[in-house]
Design a protein that fits this description.
Elements: H1 4-16, E1 20-24, H2 27-30, H3 52-57, H4 59-77, H5 83-93, E2 99-102, H6 108-112, E3 118-119, E4 122-129, E5 135-137, H7 138-148, E6 162-166, H8 175-187, E7 190-194, H9 206-212, E8 216-220, E9 233-235, H10 239-258
Parallel strand pairs: 1-2, 1-7, 2-3, 7-8, 8-9
Antiparallel strand pairs: 4-5, 4-6
Length: 261
């Protein structure tokens, strides 16, 4: 469990910050029952990689992609936001934080109530036509594939190649999304990096930008990360319990500040 001193220190920084950013990775969602994709039970241990260029060029690759995605879809389709997601959503509602940047594709920040989180790697809750840009809800198309074993095609342009609206291996991050993330991190006076191993670039390089511009960096993750030595505070504990403790300390500070003297 996070120490009282550490929770109080982070809560104080949250209270002082005017441009706080939350940056989340796969560990944010493990307490919702979604395995980290690098874990022994994660998706990387179960399937071969279908690279983006292969998907675009080869019908058999698209069949394999849809087979894999339809199986893994169930891992997050029934998941619900955990205590950590709820704390972050409340902080945004209260304007304690400016925004959320996430490496996750599960949509749990939105379900918790966060407004417009910046999804670096896209979302698995939507399907995107790679040819015309049309978007569809993922659930009906996944169900259709599971029923027919036929890769669905785009209704808007007839034969467009449909893929989850996520960043695949070999596919570049959307330039506008990455540009906005860089700007937010450079402007942040406090960044909480939560549940990220901070090893996958360019996303993992973002928290360091806050430090480079004079802001504070807090890392909350189960395991050590390459940026631990750069951080102002490091917590290797349960994310949900840690965020609840910080939130409780922060609430006490707000109450104390508002109490008549």
């Amino acid at each position: 469990m996070i120490s009282t001193a550490s929770a109080t220190r982070i809560a104080t920084w949250l209270q002082e910050a005017t441009q706080a950013i939350i940056f989340t990775g796969a560990g944010m969602s493990t307490e919702s029952g979604i395995p980290d994709f690098r874990s022994p039970d994660g998706i990387w241990s179960k399937f071969r990689t279908v690279y983006y260029d292969e998907f675009m060029a080869n019908a058999d690759a698209r069949q394999e992609y849809w087979r894999q995605k339809s199986i893994s879809h169930s891992e997050f389709a029934q998941a619900v936001p955990n205590a950590g997601h709820q704390v972050i959503a409340r902080w945004q509602h209260e304007q304690t934080i400016r925004a959320v940047i996430t490496q996750n594709i599960d949509g749990l920040h939105q379900l918790a109530g966060n407004q417009d989180p910046l999804e670096l790697h896209g979302t698995a809750r939507q399907i995107l036509c790679q040819d015309c840009g049309a978007r569809y809800a993922a659930e009906p198309l996944v169900a259709e594939f599971l029923r027919t074993d036929v890769v669905p095609s785009c209704a808007a342009c007839t034969d467009g190649r449909l893929k989850h609206a996520t960043i695949s291996f070999g596919q570049s991050l959307a330039g506008d999304v990455l540009e906005r993330a860089v700007s937010w991190c450079q402007e942040a006076d406090l960044l909480l990096a939560i549940g990220s191993s901070l090893v996958v670039s360019p996303a993992a390089d973002l928290p360091a930008l806050t430090k480079q511009q004079g802001g504070r960096l807090v890392i909350i993750n189960r395991d050590p990360t390459p940026l631990d030595g750069l951080a102002d505070e490091v917590v290797h504990e349960s994310i949900g319990e840690t965020l609840l403790a910080i939130a409780a300390s922060h609430a006490r500070k707000i109450f104390s500040a508002l109490r008549p003297r």
